[in-house]
Write a structure and sequence with these properties.
The chain is an alpha+beta fold. The chain has one domain: Alba-like domain (Translation Initiation Factor IF3, 2-Layer Sandwich). Helices cover 37% and strands 32% of the residues. It is built from three helices and four strands, in the order E-H-E-H-E-E-H. It has a four-stranded mixed β-sheet. Helix 1 crosses helix 2. The longest helix is centred in the middle third of the chain and has 18 residues. It starts with a strand and ends with a helix.
Length: 106
């Protein structure tokens, strides 16, 4: 699973789509933001993703933490958001083609 890196100029709707897809695939997602504007975009992204997933019965929440990252030889402190669902998302994972009763009926 990749860390979704959110910048000050990130489009929160697009990032929310990536966040929702990551949670559907892995059940958890990690986002990282450096600076107040990027953190604001990350929080908006989570709020939008909650709206995307709520009709499916998925309720998202996040746990914030600090992490050090190296950028151009400098160590900076980033805010990391671990985003999870309060409800299981296994039924929301993309289905693979070629299996099941529908394929057998043909």
């Amino acid at each position: 699973m990749n860390i979704l890196k959110i910048a000050a100029n990130s489009n929160p709707s697009a990032a929310a789509g990536a966040l929702a897809n990551t949670i559907r695939e892995f059940g958890v997602a990690e986002m990282q933001a450096i600076g107040p504007k990027a953190v604001n975009q990350a929080v908006k992204c989570i709020a939008i993703a909650r709206g995307y997933m709520a009709p499916s019965g998925v309720d998202l929440f996040f746990v914030p933490s600090f992490t050090d990252v190296e950028i151009n030889g400098e160590t900076k402190t980033a805010l990391r958001f671990t985003v999870r669902s309060r409800t299981p998302v296994t039924s929301l994972r993309p289905r693979t083609r070629g299996g099941g009763a529908a394929a057998a009926e043909g």
